[in-house]
Each structure stands twice: as C-alpha cells, then as structure tokens.
Amino acid sequence: MPAGEEAFLDRTIEVFQPYSPTELTREDAREIAVNVTGLFGILLQLKKARLAREQAEVESQPARESA
C-alpha cells in the first residue's frame, strides 16, 4: 500500500475513532472513505437536479416587459 494511502487511512481512523465503540482498522477506514465519497456523490446529484428544476421554472415563466 502506498505511503500516501496509509496516511490517508490513518487520518480517517483518527477522525472517526471517537464515534466508534470498537477499534477501527484500516479496512474500516477504507469503507468509511468509500461511503463518504458515495454520500457526497449523491448530494451532488441532488444539487444538480434541484438547480435543473429551478432553471426549468425560470425558463417556463413568461418574459417580463420593462417599465
């Protein structure tokens, strides 16, 4: 395992260990990283969908005339 990956997993354990009743392993840290990455992917998809809906609403409104 590359040193950078080991350091990343060790840091992940350091951050998440206070929230776990059991000692976290590097495999646990790898799973945490995958899950957090997945979560942010879902949040990004939701944001893109919301922005697309908002844009569609704006485009569907009739144009306002200037005063």
In a few lines, what is going on in this structure?
The chain has about 70 residues and is an all-alpha fold. The protein contains 2 helices and no strands.
Overview of the molecule:
- There is one protein chain.
- The chain is mainly α and 67 residues long.
- Helix 1 crosses helix 2 (26-60).
- The termini are far apart.
- Helix content is 73%, strand content 0%.
- The protein has one domain (3-60).
- It is rod-shaped, with a radius of gyration of 21 Å.
- The longest helix is centred in the middle third of the chain and has 35 residues, at 26-60.
Identify the notable features of this structure and list them briefly:
67 residues, mainly alpha, 0% strand, rod-shaped
Number of domains: 1
Q: For the report, how would you describe the main beta sheet? A: none
Q: Please trace the helix and strand order, writing H or E for each element.
A: HH
Which range does the strand content fall in? under 5%
Percent of residues in helices: over 70%
Low-confidence stretches: none
Count helical runs.
2
Topology, number of strands:
0
What class, by secondary structure content?
mainly alpha
Mean pLDDT: 94
- The value of Rg in angstroms is 21 Å
C-alpha end-to-end distance: 67 Å
What spatial form do the alpha-carbon principal axes imply?
rod-shaped
